Task: structure prediction
Amino acid sequence: MSVVHVVAWSFKSAAPESDRRAVNDGLAQGKTIPHARTFALGENKSTARANGFTHLYVASFDGRDALAAFQKDPIHAPWGPRLVEAAEQLLVLDLECSASDAPRAGRRGLRHVVAWSFKDGAADAEKTTVVEGLARQRDVQPARSFAVGPNLGLSARSLGHTHLHVSTFDDFDGLEEFRSDTIIHAPAGKRMQASAAHITALDLTD
Result:
């Protein structure tokens, strides 16, 4: 199994530009750590439901042990506290999935992340139906990968998000083509939105 690790943030207005640049550059060194099978960091390009998040990174690992080793690596470890200190808001989510559903090593492009929580009182059967409907989107072209499931809860900084999906595309044109699918994508997306209490959407290109 793979783990997809998503970290999104916005900086405090009082954070100096030099601090922002240092944190972003420091976190970006994560791509040099061998435990990370894939790693991309940059500005959030989402135009809707961004909820104020301005930056994110998306990394994938060959299991929870590899993620834990990455977080303890001396290249990455100093930057977590620096990010916490500089961030106005900070979101951390983890998704376990099959290796074939995780972002592919060596493939550059667009990482599309949607995180949500279900409305209070949503039945377990409805939650299962929503997740299974979204999972079928892995067959919708031109998605290069598609993973969906519950947030593992490895961090307390989930901000109430209980589920997420992470998909990859060559570019935004690919995402728009994916969104135009009316057979699988549209019904699954509408059902998720109807049952969701809160949604955050994030887009990252590398």
In short: The chain is about 30% helix and 35% strand.
